[in-house]
Amino acid sequence: MKRRHFLKGLSGAALLPIMSFPLLSCADDGVQSTSTKKTNLNTRMPEESEAHDATWMAYGATAQAWGTTGAYGASRALARRNLMNIAIQLSRFEAVKMLVSPNDMTEAKALLASLLHGNTTNTLTLGSGHNAVLPNVESGGKVELISQAVDDLWMRDTGPIFVSDSEQQWHGVNFNFNGWGQDDTGAAGWRRDPEKAKNGISAQPIKNDKAVAHFILQRTQTPELSTWLVLEGGGIEVDGEGTAICTESCILNPNRNPNRTKTEVEHELLRLLGVQKVIWLPGLKAQDITDGHIDFYARFVGPHRVAYGLDNDPESPEYELTHEHKKILESATDAKGRRLNLYPLVAPDAEKVANAVLSRNNWSDNLFNENSFAAGYIGFYVANKCVMMQQFGDPKADAAALKTVQALYPERTVLQMAADGLANGGGTIHCATQQQPARQARG
């Protein structure tokens, strides 16, 4: 159960011009989002399982970010194939909008067409839910490729977070993506964590990705809410009823929010997202590029229900941490004072995962990222009528995780698939997706 350790460190690439393409992309509508900083917003961030209008993704894993040699370079093509396959499977249930750099558009269109004409179900395992059906894939109609320069694929972190207010108006929060703490925010006391460099975690180009949140809000004609708070979407989990789970290692970090207290952060989360209570887990600094995002450790799966990652290998660097998280969650209550119902997702056996991944991808040993392969079932994504989760090659653990997630979402179709390119890059399906909630009245 490991996380994104490092990516290829290069200087930031210049922002490429926005271009329009006829087939699956469409031109910028020119609508400007407005940036505001209001008080008493009375906003609410919906829980992920609520209805979506679309899922946003990015055709990242660029050569500038991942390089062209070594384990990351070797994983690039597979990661992109994973991305497109995820998009196709999601498109059975909801619209998918994928940002693609102009110079990658031809490749992305060809890959989409190729996968659509192939067998799109031969890599899937379906759960046994009450409504475990697999709608037909439309011929690309629900996967929209949009021309916009990106650096990488982690849309969960670079995209905006959508919130609705008491008047059923939608806003989007731009949380000032700074490359997981690598870019100086200008805040007094900001500093890059030197431990990351000592641990081999390099900076990567982020200039294009810093513009992603604003671009999406502009395109969706959503007013933009500004904030001093720096975080990524993978750094916060909400239940839609006033409770959030976060890690201290990520948000309360001088590389993001220097000299800010828990109270200040909590007040800003209340203002922006309607969060009335934060359950803080310690997380882990400087051991992966994200500083321990919560979406690799604990996820809400409904009101006062939390799934959490658990590593039972005493030799694992995350054994003690995940068991500490378990103890904290066992004693925690939500914003309404309810104790949490907890559901562990036990990490797969590391050796079995390595053997399976090397075998099915025909990789040599040096291409498997032993210290960063993200083998955690907690990185599932909940979309309209479905859940997408990963399979890692430990048959017993894979089956147990699928059974647990299906039990948590009995009315949804659960799709389990290998996404070794993403995992070898240190991320999950959840890291590569960001929901746009349905624009309807709040529940």
Note the topology:
Elements (H helix, E strand, L loop, with lengths): L34 E2 L15 E7 L4 H4 L3 H21 L4 E6 L4 H13 L6 E3 L16 E5 L7 H4 L2 E4 L5 E4 L20 H5 L13 H8 L4 E2 L10 E3 L4 E5 H4 L10 H12 L3 E5 L16 E3 L4 E6 L8 H13 L9 E6 L3 H12 L19 E3 L2 E5 L4 H14 L4 E5 L2 H5 L9 E4 L6
Parallel strand pairs: 1-8, 2-3, 3-5, 7-8, 10-11, 13-14, 16-17
Antiparallel strand pairs: 2-18, 4-17, 6-7, 9-10, 12-13, 15-16
How is this structure best described in words?
- Keywords: Hydrolase, Signal.
- InterPro entries: Peptidyl-Arg-deiminase_porph.
- One of its GO terms (biological process) is putrescine biosynthetic process.
- With 443 residues, the protein is an alpha/beta fold.
- The chain has a single domain (45-434), classed as L-arginine/glycine Amidinotransferase, Chain A (5-stranded Propeller).
- The protein has 12 helices and 18 strands.
- The protein has helices spanning 63-66, 70-90, 105-117, 155-158, 194-198, 212-219, 248-251, 262-273, 319-331, 350-361, 395-408, 420-424, and strands at residues 35-36, 52-58, 95-100, 124-126, 143-147, 161-164, 170-173, 224-225, 236-238, 243-247, 277-281, 298-300, 305-310, 341-346, 381-383, 386-390, 413-417, 434-437.
- The strands form 5 sheets. Strands 1-8-7-6 form a 4-stranded mixed β-sheet. A 4-stranded mixed β-sheet has the order 5-3-2-18. Strands 4-17-16-15 form a 4-stranded mixed β-sheet, sandwiched between helices.
- A hairpin with a 5-residue loop joins strand 6 (161-164) and strand 7.
- Helix 2 crosses helix 3 (105-117).
- The radius of gyration is 20 Å and the shape is globular.
- The protein starts with 34 loop residues before the first strand and ends in a 6-residue tail after the last strand.
- The relative contact order is 0.20.
- The model is unreliable at 6-34 (pLDDT under 50).
